[in-house]
Amino acid sequence: MKARVWIKLVLAVAVISMSGCEKKGATVKEPEAKPEATPEAKEIRQMSANEESFGKTPDGKQVDLYTLTNTSGIRARITSFGAILVSLDVPDRDGNLADITLGFDKLDGYIGVHPYFGAIVGRYANRIGKAAFKLDGVEYKLAANNDVNHLHGGIKGFDKVVWRLEDLGVKGAGAVVKLSYISEDGEEGYPGNLACSVTYTLTEDDKLQISYEAETDKKTVLNLTNHSYFNLAGQGTGDILGHELMLNADKYTVVDEGLIPTGENRSVKGTPMDFTTPMTIGSRIGQVEGGYDHNYVLNSGGGTLALAAKVYEPTSGRVMEIHTDQPGVQFYTGNFLDGSVTGKAAKVYQKNYGFCLETQHFPDSPNKPDFPTVVLFPGQRYSTVTAYKFSTK
Ligand code: GLA
Q1: Rounded distance, CA 336 to CA 349, Å?
Q2: Helix (H) or strand (E) holding 391
Q3: What is the 301 CA–ligand 1 centroid distance (Å)?
Q4: What is the Cβ-side half-sphere exposure of residue 275, based on CA atoms within 13 angstroms?
């Protein structure tokens, strides 16, 4: 949608919301605009949640695009296709907005083959060795879509299905969109009918929070994450090697050549894997074969919301802090980007043009009894949260 039309829509909805009704597409007007905002940005710097069409899938399913904004001007756009985070506009230290996630302008890009830009990944984010696992002695065979291993939920994972809108609006201190998906028993080889939902909440204190809920009717395994590729200087502007990263992890899971954990959790101390004190991503990447694509064992151990990572981009001043209740985070430096994908605003994505911090359970946990469990039982509720907090310095 053209910016002017979009602004009109926001303003129209603002009138509705000021008349006291809270509904789909609600907007709460900001009391005071931020001083450095550009004229266009000023108008959208208010809390809102809106819906528009994003097109149709090849088999004719309607796909929508939801836009959440807050009074700092942060704008998150999420589509019902794959529950994908399509864009995330965040101010730099001068108040200028830039989209800091890689992806596509149009639905077609997401329907085609792409490396999970912004997607919700499931049922099992990351790899399952030899594409199989056992539960109660029964072997479940999955698609071997990453050499002999299973990656990111299979051929048609949660990133490639249309999610259903459950809720959209401004609630308390956040603009919210909640999407749901029912994955049927046997889908992609996994047992159990799984009802899951993902809620994106953009808060007034500049946090984009993603919460995941699920229930199953049969014992199954589950590991959901968001696979956004970030570049805090702005998507498509170059590589992310100059970003400073802190990872709150003293250990990582050692992997074999297929990126399947060997079972050993090794100390990062004195190695290029160590980000316990902030270091630029590029400072030692040359010493890591293929670049970073590793699961870090978070010091929190998971279970409670704790700081997992902090990233600072010096030219823009943007800072992103990630809090999660998950026990691990996959740090991936876009090693497989090679210029073959043209993304938003006709930007060509080269190697290392984005980094991912996929909060998650450890790879291959279904086959690693010593790793924190990923088994979900009937009657149990899967509920996890990851929050991305933005600021500048
Ligand atoms: C994850 C994996 C990577 C790669 C990307 C998608 O982050 O760990 O190896 O498969 O997804 O390209």
Answers
A1: 10
A2: strand 382-392
A3: 23
A4: 29
Environment class of 290 (CB within 10 Å of its CB; exposed 0-12, middle 13-18, buried 19+): exposed
pTM for this entry: 0.90
Helix, strand, coil share of the chain (percent; to 5): 10, 40, 45
Higher-confidence position of 232 and 46 = 232
- Residues with CB under 6 Å of ligand 1 are 115-116, 151, 259, 293, 330, 332, 336, 356, 358
Residue type present at position 266: R
Which residue, 158, 221, 225, is CA-closest to 377? 221
- Pick the atom of ligand 1 nearest to 259's CA: 9
Per-residue pLDDT for 18 more than 80? no
Span 179-221, pLDDT tens digits: 999 999 999 999 999 999 999 999 999 999 999 999 999 999 9
Rg of the Cα atoms in the chain: 20
- Note whether 352 and 240 are within 8 A (CB): yes
Note whether 248 and 260 are within 8 A (CB): no
Give the active site residue among 150, 227, 243, 294: 227
